[in-house]
């Protein structure tokens, strides 16, 4: 019985040691020992770091070909300074001692796996997307657009958003519309933006409803239609979209397409403020003081 207990304790100790601790004193030596090493810069006071540690530990067990290491920035300021660490947690991937990529902020397991093995994870996302998984299409599109874990590629982002939207993912339609609206990586096309925002809004994506309302409000890609804009803003505001509520406040304060009504303007600015839009808080105060 004792042998079994000792064996279990040994295995627990071994698995908990899959993440190695690096310090100012052993850093250079350890870096030379491993061709691929992932550095996690953290500190005891960092809440996001603590939240990520179990994920990091699990990922280290699942990716035996890469060494996972952790560096306490409080105790090892020399190494931390050499990497110009300003925010925690920070992840840095090294190959033969050279930095390949880095990212700042806590990652979920799928994001960490993507950071560790980008091509492997991309292939998995693409396979799921091609099999009809709209969320996978959306996720890979976002990664290509943001460029934090993958290199920015707006052409690929657009392609995956199109697939996601075609699979009736409302958020995918919203992102697709936004690329044509801004524009991002494509020629600006308000008509396409309206088309895809409409699909997103019909699928209950309130951000799409609000953006669509703005296009009608400003007459971008269509004739100005305050009535339509108002309807869309109301729909989004009723679902706690702070910007839509703010836009309604502005409509009533200026009398754009509606009868000027400062009481209603105050009510919508107050809602927008409640939902987290700070400029609306200032507008509320200004209206109260009139």
Automatic annotation (TrEMBL):
Gene3D superfamilies: Glutaredoxin, Tetratricopeptide repeat domain. The keyword Phosphoprotein does not apply. Pfam families: Sel1 (PF08238), Thioredoxin (PF00085). Its EC number is 3.5.2.6. Belongs to the hcp beta-lactamase family. The keyword Membrane does not apply. Residues 1-19 form the signal peptide. It comes from the Bacteria. Keywords: Antibiotic resistance, Disulfide bond, Hydrolase, Redox-active center, Repeat, Signal, TPR repeat. It catalyses: a beta-lactam + H2O = a substituted beta-amino acid. This is beta-lactamase. GO terms for biological process: response to antibiotic; response to stress. SMART domains: SEL1 (SM00671). One of its GO terms (molecular function) is beta-lactamase activity.
